[in-house]
Amino acid sequence: MTAEQSLSLFVIGTMMVFFIWDRFRYDVVACSALMLAVAVGIVPFDHAFDGFSDDIVIIVGSALIVSAGVARSGFVDAAIQRFLPDLNSVRAQLALLVVTVTVLSSFIKNIGALAIMIPVAFQFARRSSVQPSVFLMPMAFGALIGGLMTQVGTSPNVVVSRMRQELTGESFSMFDFTPVGASLALVGAIFLLFAYRLVPERKSQQVSVQQAIEITDYTSEAMAAPGSPAIGKSLSSLVKLGDGGAVVIAIFRRGTHLAPLPDVVIEADDILLLEGGPAALDRIISQAKLKISGDRSPTSAETARTEIEAIEAVIASGSPLLGMSAERLALFHNHNINLLAVSRQGERLKQRLGSIRLRAGDIVVLQGARADLPAFLQDFSCLPLAQRDILLGTTRRAPVPLLVLAAAMGATAVGILPVQVAFFAAALAMVIFRVIPLREVYRAVDGPILVMLAALIPVSDTLRTTGGSDLIANWLSGMAVNLPPAGALALILVAAMAVTPFLNNAATVLVMAPIAASFASALDYRPDAFLMAVAIGAGSDFLTPIGHQCNTLVMGPGGYRFSDYPRLGLPLSIVIVIVAVPMLMWVWPLR
Fold first, then answer.
1. Same domain, 520 and 580
2. Which of 292, 312, 346 is the last residue of a domain?
3. I need a surface site. Which of 65, 182, 259, 420 has the fewest CB within 10 A?
4. What is the pLDDT of residues 535-559, one digit of tens each?
5. CA 340 to CA 360: how far, in whole Å?
6. What is the mean pLDDT of residues 469-486?
7. Dihedral of the CA atoms 4, 5, 8, 14 (nearest 10)?
8. Does 578 map to a domain?
9. What is the rounded distance in angstroms from the CA atom of residue 23 to the CA atom of residue 30?
10. Are residues 569 and 461 in the same domain?
11. Mean pLDDT of 15-28
12. Between the CA atoms of 554, 558, 561 and 567, what dihedral angle is there, to the nearest 10 degrees?
């Protein structure tokens, strides 16, 4: 072993120790490893930041923006509420969640697919009176196995495609991953549906600021404008859209106040007074295509000129708003501010929204131009609450993100555009068509993940440039000399699985792919199956909450402990190995 090889293994090994220790954030660890590699001379100065221009960073960042746009559209939630409003069996709910996440993960970033469905899991948990932990870990694992089906489903597939191009001159195509990946997804999903009871039912141990200020008794007002799908349907069917989070407390029809009985049929121009949490109110109003009434809503032209947002605020004592109503103030006409909802502690508000006389301590949801809201809050002594996403009153463009995503997928599938260009264009389209506001674009990108990837690329490449990957391949070859071909392939797959919990999955591919290729060459095998095995192993971290963002994402909301993951993850890992090895040998012959 040369000095450079020793230094490469030392830097990577030290980095893995710090990842396991988890004392410092992963991007800080990766950047520190990069600087250490530069300091000891295994990464040249002029190549230290090559990772920041790498296609992988563009693809991952763009995919996160596209995923955020699809999630914001509310399409998945609306589809479930429309087609499966009475799904109450825990196993049936779990099947829907796992299958949906698995399928979505094959087309969009798996963490994005998981994020889209987490709110639905919480709705199902409330409906079935179980803890969300029953659903969340199987969903996270479903997102991981779903990502194995296409090139863009997960970062390891993207990385291993690039590595194959560097090693053989030809990249894997979009659907080269599908035969093996779909088999694993099918078997894995079936396993999760029967083994989910291995997951302990835990209460969330994480109380966020948003949960601490959660308000569930806002009063809002909406009108069934002509063309609304709610017209002609009963009030009970409309309320179901809120999944128990909101109720209709009054109906105003042509000046008449009607009792909100479940069998009342909604007519055009009915004004509905609703009470509930912002999310439930938003689901009812957006899915039923109701028009928020009271003040005039911003027009599409006004929305195009400036960013419109909603904010929660408390009316302070001494505010000029005290004793005033929105109608009397003419909020929109005089201040370009729309009153969307009001909450008053200990009291149900039954009058029209615009006629409510505001009091000190009332909590209001105000909508307006981002530039106008701060001055209004200051002038009228309103104290903003901790900022959280309030989608009530926002315009939804559900078909747009789906069309953009389909166009990006189609362009890459037929080879018109490379993945990085297609998804960068898709992310840009999400912004241009105002699917996702500009203020949320960089929040969706998840900077620490991209910085970590960019820093790890040159560090991981030191194994190849110093010959360390060939050295490790020789070690593995020595171990596999007496193994049958299936055993040699399983060794690489298990090795990738073993490394992934301690190193980011994309970084695992960067480290393991050259080793796998050298390993295959030493045994006189074709490299394709071994590269695929690395991608599968790197994308199948079911043992810890730290190896993949999907596992980390559900840890807090699910209340899971570190030791909970192997309970379901270890048997699933065994199933993946048993199914993957023969499938790889069949689809990608070794000789």
1. yes
2. 292
3. 259
4. 999 889 898 776 677 777 777 678 7
5. 18
6. 74
7. -120
8. yes
9. 13
10. yes
11. 77
12. -80
